Each structure stands twice: as C-alpha cells, then as structure tokens.
Amino acid sequence: MSFPDRKEDEVRRMLLGPYPAVPPDLAGRAAERGRRLLRRHRAVRAVGWLLLLAAAIAFTVWAAIVHPWTTPPTDTTPPFEGW
After folding, report:
1. CA distances from 61 to 15, 52, 66, 70, 80 (A)
2. Rounded CA gap, 28 and 66, in Å?
C-alpha cells in the first residue's frame, strides 16, 4: 500500500468514528471572541485614520510655514561685479 492510500484510509476512519463532544457554550464563546476581534479591528482602523489625518494636518501646517516650494536665497555667493 502506498503512502497516500494509507493516509486516506486514516482520514476515513477518523470521519466514521465517534465524534468528540462539543462544549455546550462553544457558540457563545466563539461569538464573543468574534465581537472582541471586530471591536479591536475597528479601533485599530480608527486610530490609523486619526494618525493619517494628524500627519496630513501637520504636513499642511509645516508647508504653510516653511514654503518648501520656493527657492532659498543665495547668500553663499558674493555678487558678480567689476567685469
């Protein structure tokens, strides 16, 4: 008998055998865990959006104060005169 046949037979025996007992409160615990995970995901998403909004506001304020799109004054080179 080859390896896949042996594995298939073992799976069939497991499915035909007696099923394990399921705790009576399993559905309630699973639902509560799902609610907790959903609340956590919503909170993380909200914090992410708030951080993105804060970064956009900080960048806008910085750009309004510094004006990074303008060229800096040329204070390092002396004027070209006397030719």
Report:
1. 65, 14, 9, 16, 37
2. 57
Please tell me the predicted confidence (pLDDT) of residue 74. Answer: 67
Distance CA 74, CA 8 (A): 80
What pLDDT, in 10s, does the model give residues 62-79? 999 999 888 877 667 666
pTM: 0.60
Per-position DSSP letters for 20-73, written without gaps between them: PPPPTTHHHHHHHHHHHHHHHHHHHHHHHHHHHHHHHHHHHHHHHHH-TTSPPP
Interatomic CA distance for residues 11 and 54, integer angstroms: 55
Chain Cα centroid distance, residue 55: 17
Three-state secondary structure call for residue 82: coil
Residue with tokens 């960048």: 59
